[in-house]
Amino acid sequence: MPLLYGGFGLVLLALWIFCLLDVIVTAEEDCRNLPKGAWILIVLFLPEVGSILWLLAGRPQTVTRPGGLPYRGNTGSFPEYDRPGRFVPSNPDDDEDFLRRCRERAEEQRRAYREQQRQAEGNQDQ
């Protein structure tokens, strides 16, 4: 029987610590029914009752996270994408300057690779 009481006590302690930390990290504007400071005091000084009250009446109902799950076809909604004045890329096939720079860079890399191969062959012949 003492083992049962000890286990129950540990569960209550874990619940109290969880709720106390949850109140602390919850944003002020997300707390329901009472100010955040009042919830901290209630959970701190009335551990069992305060924890249950926090879970039922004070904890935010839903947590909205931008983006969601990527495998459900979600493209994501991050604040930096909604920033005014942000450059929105167009179709790369329509951007001649972009395509020209890509071709120049590819040709430069091909030239550098051929030169590297010539040097490697020259070192092997010596």
Automatic annotation (TrEMBL):
The chain crosses the membrane at residues 37-57. It comes from Microbispora hainanensis. The keyword Transmembrane helix applies. It comes from the Bacteria. It is a multi-pass membrane protein. Residues 66-98 are annotated as: Disordered. Its main location: membrane. Residues 14-59 form the Cardiolipin synthase N-terminal domain. The keyword Chaperone does not apply. It is found in: Cell membrane. Keywords: Cell membrane, Membrane, Transmembrane, Transmembrane helix. This is PLDc N-terminal domain-containing protein. It holds the Pfam family PLDc_N.
